[in-house]
Specification:
By secondary structure, this protein is α+β, with helices and mostly antiparallel strands. Helices cover 32% and strands 13% of the residues.
């Protein structure tokens, strides 16, 4: 698929169109059909009519039409000797990691940010931004201190190393239940991915940051899964309706196909009068399903599969050893899951 999308699409189309058990109907679906069980897999550019039908079913507040995604980094790649844990104004728990910048560090960061290369919008997209969700570089270009009164506001934060309020602060918020992935708060951006890595690694404590997702801004229709979905990909309130693909909040071709497999298996189980299966969280399929259904992030956003979604290991291991160990556990748990099905 990565080498030849057209060839891959043609093979999938051939497999579907020649399968005697599949009734292929080529027409636009503008509203949710009455048949059950039902799998909704309309993708990130779901039509306006079908989006309205879906919103009437789930509630419009649980359907997103605009995707502003901040970068995610792994906790183990953060230099915790420079970063401190605290919340602004001393309110609530110390839920945020804080990367302090002095005036010189901020100046270098700001200069690099406003001159960095950005992605050109696609032909079908326009640079229309919500004031409450501006790209970081757009805010920065409005003035030298704009970020210091916005997402990099240091008010109420005291660096324990100096006992003083920093000149600016980048905050990171936990993005998964295991606490292995952190979100750069307010860092939605249109910078090219290479530029994001270069510029954001200028932030003290993020010099060696491992980015599991880069920031993007584009039109994207997806469900707010933690409010609506079960790890089986069934709707919580209407379990005979399942969702698959990017509409669920997974990102990427392989991830979309993986969610389709789970939704397909479970729709077949429901049709046979059986209970839907929950994929093991230790597998890549299961990690994705658990993320879209149980993410703790208050600002749920689509996600590619990555090792940060997997349950944490009991002890810290070197990166390569950790990846191999997680992969071995995933293969074993997935084999056991397939054994239940077949």
């Amino acid at each position: 698929m990565a080498v030849d999308r057209i060839g891959f699409a043609e093979k999938v189309t051939e497999a579907i169109s020649t399968n005697p058990r599949i009734n292929l109907v080529r027409k636009e679906v503008t509203r949710i059909p009455e048949c059950r069980p039902l799998v909704i897999a309309t993708g990130p550019l779901t039509s306006g009519d079908f989006s309205s039908s879906l919103a009437s079913l789930t509630g419009e507040e649980y359907l997103s039409f605009y995707d502003a995604v901040a970068p995610l980094v792994t906790l183990e790649s953060i230099n915790t000797n420079l970063i401190f844990r605290q919340s602004r104004y001393g309110k609530g728990e110390a839920d945020y990691l804080n990367a302090p910048l002095n005036e010189e560090e901020y100046k270098l960061f700001w200069e690099s940010l406003v001159t960095a290369e950005v992605n050109d919008p696609h032909a079908f997209e326009e640079n229309r931004f919500f004031e409450g969700c501006l790209p970081l570089e757009v805010m920065a270009r409005r003035g030298y201190d704009t970020l210091r009164y916005g997402p990099l506001k240091p008010v109420g934060l005291i660096d324990p190393r100096t006992g003083k309020e920093p000149f600016a602060v980048v905050q990171l918020r936990q993005d998964n239940t295991a606490g292995t992935i952190y979100n750069l708060v307010g860092f939605q951006t249109q910078l090219k991915w290479g530029e994001q890595k270069r510029v954001f690694r200028m932030i003290p404590g993020l010099e060696n940051a491992d980015f599991v997702r880069f920031g993007v801004m584009h039109r994207n229709t997806f469900l707010k899964g933690p409010e609506l979905l079960q790890p089986t990909l069934q709707l919580k309130e209407m379990p005979e309706i399942l969702c698959a693909g990017q509409i669920t909040g997974v990102e990427g071709y392989v991830e979309s196909a993986a969610s389709g497999l789970i939704a397909g298996i479970n729709s077949a189980y429901l049709a046979l009068g059986k209970e839907a299966l929950i994929p093991p969280q230790e597998s890549a399929h299961g990690a994705l399903c658990w993320y879209v259904a149980r993410s703790r992030s208050p600002d749920f956003q689509p996600m590619n599969v990555n090792f940060g979604l997997f349950p944490p290991l009991p002890r810290k291991l070197p990166r390569r050893v950790r990846a191999n160990t997680l992969a071995e556990i995933a293969l074993k748990s997935w084999s056991q899951f397939l054994g239940i099905i077949f």
